[in-house]
Write a structure and sequence with these properties.
It contains 14 helices and twelve strands. By secondary structure, it is an alpha/beta fold. The structure holds L-rhamnitol (RNT) and zinc ion. L-rhamnitol binds next to loops.
Length: 422
């Protein structure tokens, strides 16, 4: 009965979009081929499994909240991701951080990690994901306490983190080989300072050298694609971040790496959407960290707001979806964590769908003939089109919950699984 309602609503919606020249069936087919990369770290507040009660510390980022039932080990985290995936239409990737290895109770320092510590993730991923992505973890560690890692002026500290980064490349390459799809390895270091430094240039020069060393060994892009993540400021690094946008953009151009644009890493009024066309005229590929900045925090759960609409519109309008990797990056410990993943992922996919449903030809005609009133009015008209009916139909036919079912599913899991964890 309920299914029929969704099917009937879709039929009506299909006709309405067809009148604008939009083929909704083709759009739904296209939706299936755009994977998100689900960040594992929303599942346990960026803790990881190095020790039993590992917690995020330092690093210019912060998680608040103590909602019950966070994943305490790899099995729980995998189960939680699977639950989230069952509520997200499509087949998606999982993005791991280096602290999420399976270390069997042994202390394995960051400069010691090996592919073997991640082999059970690879096995699991073959069955449950479209691929794995990876990140070095340059925070929550005594050797990061000074606030500087790869840009540290202390040779020993720097060597330690360079070795960590190199090992992450091997692990990424290993995933790429195992899974038959290249791993996107992102490098983000928290390096920076709370107050105004006098040697901005010096730290950046060191970071540049460290990166040169890290990337000195060639790894086939068949297995590994690498990005460096830019940032303007963080918590405790308000005055200076070594890896700024200009620094990494320049480095990436020179070294043939991607940059990672995180929605939370710019001035509050600066739009990532507007950067995509510029970057991709000079670079082959790009990594996105889809997030929601709020005041000084860069990592709130993604919702379907103007920034997200604009971001996905650009990806579709520029026809660059095959050159862009879409990672999610937010962490909130104050609500049901599976719900956080599901809401953020679904919001991103809704924005993608909304963008795919634009009558591009018509909009372009208006624009190119200088009819800016009609362009504006059509964009407004789209906002009251039955987009939700197309979305629900997509969920229904992808065996993911329709909108009205999501909350119940998440709360059932909370009741039956999360609240039973110690
Ligand atoms: C921090 C960066 C980075 C992290 C993750 C955990 O500001 O956005 O991507 O969020 O590596
Ligand atoms: Zn990020």
């Amino acid at each position: 009965m309920e299914e029929n309602i969704h099917v009937r609503s879709y039929e009506t919606a299909r006709q309405q979009y067809a009148e604008l020249g939009v083929d909704t069936d083709a759009v739904l087919e296209a939706m299936k081929h755009v994977p998100l990369s689900l960040h594992c770290w929303q599942g346990d507040d960026v803790g990881g499994f190095e020790t039993e009660d590992a917690e995020l510390s330092g690093g210019g980022i912060q998680v608040t909240g103590n909602f019950p039932g966070k994943a305490r080990n790899p099995d729980e985290l995998k189960a939680d991701i699977q639950k989230a995936f069952s509520l997200i239409p499509g087949t998606h990737r999982v993005n791991l951080h280096a602290v999420y290895g399976e270390f069997g109770g042994r202390a394995v320092d960051r400069d010691q990690i090996e592919p073997e510590h991640f082999s059970s993730w690879a096995d699991w991923a073959k069955e449950h994901t479209a691929g794995l992505d990876f990140n070095g973890t340059f925070f929550s560690h005594p050797k990061a306490d000074s606030g500087y890692t790869l840009s540290s002026k202390d040779k020993g500290i720097r060597a330690f983190w360079i070795e960590h980064a190199k090992r992450c490349r091997s692990i990424g390459e290993y995933f790429g080989k195992e899974l038959g799809t290249p791993t996107v390895l992102n490098l983000w270091v928290p390096d920076g300072s709370k107050d105004v430094p006098v040697d901005r240039m010096g730290f950046r020069a060191v970071l540049r050298q460290s990166l040169d060393d890290i990337f000195s060994q060639e790894i086939s892009p068949k297995y590994l694609k690498e990005s460096i993540e830019t940032k303007l400021f963080g918590i405790g690094s308000e005055a200076y971040v070594v890896g700024s946008h200009e620094f990494y953009l320049s480095y990436a151009l020179q070294a043939g790496k991607m940059i990672c644009l995180d929605l939370g890493h710019f001035h509050p009024t600066e739009l990532i959407a507007d950067k995509i066309s510029s970057v991709l005229l000079f670079q082959d590929e790009l990594l996105l960290h889809v997030s929601r900045p709020m005041r000084w925090d860069s990592d709130h759960i993604v919702v379907l707001n103007d920034d997200i609409y604009a971001l996905f519109q650009e990806l579709v309008r520029c026809e660059v979806l095959n050159r862009v990797h879409i990672g999610l990056d937010f962490f909130d410990g104050s609500v049901n964590r599976i719900g956080a993943w599901v809401t953020g992922s679904r919001a991103s996919l809704k924005a993608l769908l909304f963008a795919f449903l634009e009558p591009r030809k018509l909009l372009l005609e208006y624009e190119e003939s200088g009819n800016y009133y009609a362009r504006l009015a059509l964009l407004e008209q789209l906002k009251s089109m039955p987009f939700g009916a197309v979305w629900d139909y997509y969920c229904l036919t992808s065996s993911a919950a329709t909108e009205n079912k999501v909350i119940g599913e998440v709360l059932d899991y909370e009741h039956n699984v999360l609240r039973r964890r110690g």
